[in-house]
Amino acid sequence: MGGTPDNIHRRMFRVVLPRIIEMKQFVYFFAAAVFLMSCMLGHAADPEKDLLMYLPFDEGKGDKAGDTSPNGFTGDIKNGKWVEGVVGQALEFDNGFVSFDPLDIDQPEEMTIEFWFKPAEKIEGGARIDLLYRLTGGGRPHITFNRGGVLFGYYFATQGAELEVRSKYIGFEPEWYYFVGTQNKKTAWLYLNGELDDEAQSGGDARMDFGTQGMCIAASQGNSNFFKGAIDEFKIWSVAFTAEEVKASMDRALAVEADGKLTTTWGKLKSGGRL
Predict the structure, then answer these.
(1) Closest to 131 (Cα-Cα) out of 148, 112, 118, 121
(2) 109 Ramachandran zone, left/alpha/beta (phi>0; psi -120 to 50)
(3) Bridge partners, residue 235, by sequence
(4) What pLDDT shows up at residue 247?
(5) Sign of CA dihedral 232, 238, 244, 245
(6) pLDDT for res 31
(7) Which residues contact 213 (CB under 8 A, 6 or more apart)?
(8) pTM for the whole structure
(9) pLDDT tens digits for 195-215?
(10) HEC states along 78-130?
(11) Confidence class of residue 40 from pLDDT cuts 50, 70 and 90?
(12) CA of residue 52 relative to chain centroid, distance
């Protein structure tokens, strides 16, 4: 009933051979995809050397904000309370801030600042508000609402000039926004919610004055221009993000929401790469 052995072998050959060919095609495709991905990710940041600061804002109590990057900085919290964040907890401010003494880090040639923020009420004008500034003195960078007729801007610098990227947004609702300000030696970009908002020429190495004048989150120098609202997942990198990395970082933060804050420990951050 089953036919001769030769007929059986021929039928098996006709069935199995196409599957073998399909499997080989899949293997070749997979290998090519892995190769292309490795090329795309070959420049990806190394958290051990490129992550300058990471503030998860997950302490839940106390008046200190811990940096889980290799630098291990500690910030002082004033008038901040822990609330539900984008991932895990966040810090909410009402005439409050987090301040850091001068950061003992080398001046980066490129830079990326990323974090999530949620205004307590709609912002569409009014008095100046600083999301990020120095603890003392002038300088750059800073991230500011309502400065010189600009609703929202990323104010960056090179070693030779102080510059700005102006947002095209006309208002900010009381909801979460993902901010990225990034610059290399040619260009600076401002991203909101994973999308390019605007860009400007830079024309030189980045300048970051937090190393000499400290840093203040949610206020200017800890005594004015207060941001009223919540901030989460604050990071500074010594490399410039690509557009793909901006989107991936935002999506990754949203993806871990159901499982809690998976990126709060340095070991998990290191194993996962750029977050």
Answers:
(1) 118
(2) alpha
(3) 54, 114
(4) 96
(5) negative
(6) 32
(7) 102, 134, 135, 136, 137, 139
(8) 0.80
(9) 999 999 999 999 999 999 999
(10) EEEEEEECCCCEEEEEEEEEEEECCCCCCCCCCEEEEEEEEECCCECCCCCEE
(11) very low
(12) 12
